[in-house]
Amino acid sequence: MEFNTYSGQGPQSVGWDMNGSRSKFDQTAFEMVDKGIFTAEVRVQPTSITVTISGGKDNLKPTVAMTTKIIQALGCGDKPVFQNATTSPIYFGFTAGTGGLGTIQDILNLKIVSPAP
Q1: For residue 109, is pLDDT > 60?
Q2: 18-55, pLDDT tens digit by residue?
Q3: Residue 9: φ, ψ to 5°
Q4: What is d(CA 105, CA 115) in angstroms, rounded to the nearest whole number?
Q5: By C-alpha distance, which of 21, 40, 20 is closest to 30?
C-alpha cells in the first residue's frame, strides 16, 4: 500500500505497488497532510485489495479510499494475483521516502488477521 504525501510525486493519494515498483495502481486522491491521525484498514482478498480510512481531525466516518480494479488482470491468465494467499505466504513491510525532505511516519497500532486454515 502506498500513502503518498510527498508533493513531488503527484497528489496526496492512496494506491498500491507490486514487485518493488512504484506503479501506483488504482491511485485515488486522498488528502491527509496536517489532517490528524487516521485509521486505515487494508483488506487483502484473493481478487481484491480495499483500503478503508477513518478518523483524522474531521472525524471521518469509515470511508473506502481505494479499491482495486485491475488485480485479476495482473494475475497469471485467469488466476488472480493473490490466488494462493491462504496456502503461500504474502510478505509485506513498511517504508517511508521523503525525496530529500524530512518527515515522521508513525504506526500506532497493527493488527493482522488471517483466516483459519
Answers
A1: yes
A2: 766 677 778 888 888 889 988 988 887 767 788 899 99
A3: -115, 30
A4: 29
A5: 40
- 32 found inside a domain: yes
110 within a domain of the structure (yes/no): no
Return the C-alpha cell found at 85.
Answer: 494467499
- Inside any domain, residue 114: no
Summarize pLDDT for 53-79 with one digit per residue, the tens: 999 999 999 999 988 876 555 545 555
Buried b (16+ CB within 10 A) or exposed e, 21-59: eeebbbbeebebeeeeeeebeeebeeebbebebeeeeee
Residue 48 to residue 85: CA distance in whole angstroms: 12
Judge if pTM exceeds 0.85: no
Reported as type and span, the H/E element at residue 44 is strand 38-45
Q: DSSP 3-state assignment of 8?
A: helix
